[in-house]
Amino acid sequence: MARPPSDVIAAIATAPGRGGIGVVRISGPNLSALAATLGGKVPEARVACFTRFRSADDGLIDEGLLLYFPAPNSFTGEDVIELQGHGGPVVMQLLLARCLELGARLAEPGEFTRRAFLNGKLDLAQAESVADLIEASTAAAARSAVRSLTGSFSKEVHGIVERLIDLRMLVEATLDFPDEDVDFLAEARALERIQTIASELEALLDRARQGSLLRSGLHVVLVGQPNVGKSSLLNRLAGEERAIVTDIAGTTRDALRETIQIEGIPLHITDTAGLRDTTDEVEKIGIARTWQEIERADVIVRLVDVRAGLTDADAAIDARLPAGVERITVFNKVDLAGHDAKRVDADGAVSLYLSAKAGQGIELLRAELLRVAGWHRHGEDIILARERHLIALREALACIHRALDNRHALELMAEELRLAQEAVNEITGEFTPDDLLGVIFSRFCIGK
Ligand code: GDP
Ligand code: ZN
């Protein structure tokens, strides 16, 4: 792996704004001289040292603590200096400017974590979980991120890689000694072991999918004719008056989005302009946007006024909905029809009867949204996965299945096992190309 660049980087590590303290972090090779200049004396390693931070002309900038972490016992694996001053934006800028004056350059987003990765302090999945932990928007997401950060996901990934390496050695040995009497593979129960890896990958993928839900949530789009109660339903789900509700058809002309949480899963719910034939130009634009939203949906909730039932207009909407996307039909306004709320499952096509306005049956909709999302409450063992991890796990699983299909063509089997290992390795970054690293770390905040 390429060695990290060895210049000195600095950044304000604490959040912008005012706080009790603020931290400037510096990383690079051989920082003891810089630490001595900033601290007024050579600091003891890993001991908080009270310091007056001074400018080039000896003016006082701030007083605070200086911490010096010599390599390799630091976050980045390089020498690291932390300056803890008062957490005001101006004083932090002055401290940072002083560091730049002394030869540091401003760190790029994620550059500290990138160096930690390049120096083997963290693998890639752990490095990503640093960003995930910082960005976690729910307690469940934060718990999951910190578990990945401490390496529990990486450990499972490594376990699979090790088992793949064992198998590959076995298959390659069999290829190298084709005339041996013993059937190495049968003896070592190779096929069973490949099956086991396939099940492990499937289980991991399932937990990763749950984590991906927790992390990114689900896009839900409410569609239906004007006045069926889409905006009322969004309000009800969001628990506040967000969308404008009126009884004039065509009021919601633009898409309104609201993010709510159900059991910690973020649901991005979009209310849309009612779908109908119209000559109103503004309304037409709203309807065009609705179709764009529908293209991006994970789940479509189609609303119908229970009193009118499914009409030709609903059938026309239905025919245009993309195939393969989950849908739930809601018969709304049961309060006006004297019905009770209920759930009807007709060969997998689920309909809910509820009242957006009166609130009856809303819990049925919440449960149904989680069900179609595939959420099954794994609890603590979910993995806060990124799309990249899901792709790698799916790819590895596909290779394993092909390896099993090629049980009578050992060369092909060996190659598929190699590809599976490569895919799994990408998760922890063993075979990750530089440009991908650039993409991953550029999404971090500066100072991390
Ligand atoms: P949208 O055009 O589909 O967004 O429909 P709105 O949410 O704006 O609702 C249209 C009208 O139907 C408003 O007067 C709502 O108060 C009313 N409405 C919506 N849902 C219900 C319901 O469940 N019961 C009753 N009685 N009225 C409802
Ligand atoms: Zn509306």
TrEMBL record:
Its main location: cytoplasm. The keyword Hydrolase applies. Mg(2+) binds at S231, T252. It is found in: Cytoplasm. It comes from the Bacteria. Signal peptide: none annotated. (6S)-5-formyl-5,6,7,8-tetrahydrofolate binds at R25, E82, K121, K448. Its cofactor is K(+). K(+) binds at N227, T246, I248, T251. GTP binds at residues 227-232, 246-252, 271-274. Residues 217-374 form the TrmE-type G domain. PROSITE patterns: G_TRME (PS51709). SUPFAM superfamilies: P-loop containing nucleoside triphosphate hydrolases, TrmE connector domain. Keywords: Cytoplasm, GTP-binding, Hydrolase, Magnesium, Metal-binding, Nucleotide-binding, Potassium, tRNA processing. Binds 1 potassium ion per subunit. The keyword Glycosyltransferase does not apply. NCBIfam families: mnmE_trmE_thdF (TIGR00450), PRK05291.1-3 (NF003661), small_GTP (TIGR00231). Exhibits a very high intrinsic GTPase hydrolysis rate. Involved in the addition of a carboxymethylaminomethyl (cmnm) group at the wobble position (U34) of certain tRNAs, forming tRNA-cmnm(5)s(2)U34. Belongs to the TRAFAC class TrmE-Era-EngA-EngB-Septin-like GTPase superfamily. TrmE GTPase family. Homodimer. Heterotetramer of two MnmE and two MnmG subunits. This is tRNA modification GTPase MnmE.
